[in-house]
Hints:
By secondary structure, the protein is an all-alpha fold. Helix content is 64%, strand content 0%. The protein is built from four helices and no strands. The longest helix has 25 residues, at 37-61. It is elongated.
Amino acid sequence: MSYAVLRLRREARDVFLLNHIEALDYALIARHLDLSIADVQARLADALCEISRTVDLIERVRPPSKLSKAENPDVR
């Protein structure tokens, strides 16, 4: 997930990190970045969508893992 966060545009990344790492609420982030609360919400939504897209893409292109019989009971 860190790769997905690093790929974010700076504006979205700043809001995401302040909210998820520093645990600041929208009002504090807005004050800190001189934004409206609506802008903070929009940037956070953009960040979460982009992170989700990046993680989904990584999961789709990742080669299948080799599971043991114990991990995958359908393997005979």
